[in-house]
Amino acid sequence: MAEVEINAVSKAFGKLQAVTDLSLTIGNGEFVALLGPTGAGKTTALRLIAGLEQPDEGSIRIDGRDVTGDAPADRDVAFVFQQYSLYPHLTVFENMAFALRAPIRRMPEADIRAKVQDVARLLHIETKLDNKATLLSGGQMQRVAIGRALVRSPSIYLMDEPLSSLDAKLRGELRLELKRIQVDLGATILYVTHDQTEAMTMASRIGVIEGGRLMQIGTPREIYENPINAHVAARLGQPVINLLPAGLFAGAPHGAETIGARTEHLTIARGGGDVSATVKRVEHLGDQSHLHLDLAGRPVVTLADPEAAFGAGEVVSLRLNKPLFFDAKGRRVAA
Amino acid sequence: MTSATAAHSVVEPSATTRRLAGSLVVLYAIITMIPLVWIMLTAFKSPDDAISYPPKVMFKPSLEGFCNLFTTRSRQTPEFIRSLGPPQGLCDSIARERNMVVAGPSNYVPRFVNSLIIAFGSTVLAVTLGTLSAYGFSRFRVPLKDDLLFFILSTRMMPPIAVAIPIYLMYRTIGLSDTRLGMILLYTSVNVSLAVWLLKGFIDEIPREYEEAAMIDGYTRFQAFVKVVLPQATTGIAATAIFCLIFAWNEYAFAVLLTSGNAQTAPPFIPIIIGEGGQDWPAVAAGTTLFLVPIVVFTVLLRKHLLRGITFGAVRK
To answer: Side-chain half-sphere of B206: how many Cα atoms within 13 Å?
Structure first.
């Protein structure tokens, strides 16, 4: 394990600027998640670190060594691809042993067998080792793909949305397992995802990336509570933060054009609030309800206790409770 | 799926359609097999039965055709033949019934060996070059890629015999006339364009993540190519090899023009097997029948790879 330092890296594909001036340091044993929408440059960032792409500008250092011009094999990184990429002509065991059998490693076959069996146990696939890789379920294939990286002890594990092609239940299970394994091994991981839950639950730090630029990096709590702009604020929180004109409420600070109100910033009651809104629709989720409101022609979505039993057409009152403020360019304004 | 559900399915053909299609395929197969069967029957006929009219379907089988294919014979007086010892083997006794003795082996075996060396040699070369260049075209940014690919394909656009005379003169000048190497190079140059195009299609289908994963795991690009790409391209390589082999094996025009005593292949040799008083049809048929064997064996050996589905399931798209 080692520290990985990305220094002012830029990469364009023809006219498309994929990554712009990206600087990021991943500490030894740290789990950093890059969170952003499709096409934000997350995968390109991983491929640059892996050496599958060459940066146009900037440098990449692993453990203090400049690896910018090195071939992927010489960088000592492990990559988990979004689409498993298991070798269909090999068994599960052979897939997991593949990296260890590389000519540059010269690892004795007995050590390879022991290592693969260790990792297979860790991932609960030890009974599948003799199967053809293509005959597994999606969740098992993804475990093998992760296992193929875990058999090595690289400087850093690069994971490209490894859970995105799984169903919700499996994703939840593997999320917990992956975090447990990371803590057990003390592994350094750079994890790319568009799923805020994965980023929030697993990462020690989250980098929010948008349009090829790293907008903010910090602990999940910092990113959630102190977003530097409206983009970052909109990335986290379920339901998505409501961005409303500052004029709708009294008491916005000077320069604030937009109010960002998450569920926890909105107190909803029958009368007694600052402004009133009409309930348009109620989505019952079981333990909670999504309340779709109309506030002076603006849609507002918030969570409500199902016990409160709001109905469509009902007029309710809203009160703001320490919301976020943004200026005309979306930058954060102190309250 | 049961036939009951298939009959109601929109995409599955109905049972009647399938029976009709099946019968047509069988009928077509029988029609195309008739010449082959006739050649094989002729191979076991006597020269008289082979040219009898009306043609004989029932006849007394004879190995004279095979004997005449593998031997040369000379006519002798009956007194001389009686003065010889007992016949040396089956072919000698067949020959003596016609007042002939076996004089020595024919050229069929050396011609057949030439065919084997030239056809398999050019196939290996064409498929190797084709696989490497197809991989290059598939994976790298090659300047003028589309133009180059079109240029490679354009070598197939005219009939090869159109360049026969230039090639004949060129080969004579550089000493490749009537050599096995010359024929291997010639057939390779014809086949390599087909190989590049066929294999590029197959390699394009193999996701590049496989090689990227291997390269990150410590393999060089060439090692990744050997360990990951080649095993998954076997279906395409097998199909391409069969096409190349069939062309090189059957090629006649260039073989007639460019080879004679030294590197002659079987196709120009077989039709000129002359017996007494004209073409020795049973020997020609026997030579043709044996000539089919290597292609059949090769195709059967590679059949497993041809029928096996292309990789699926390991990469989600």
So the answer is: 27
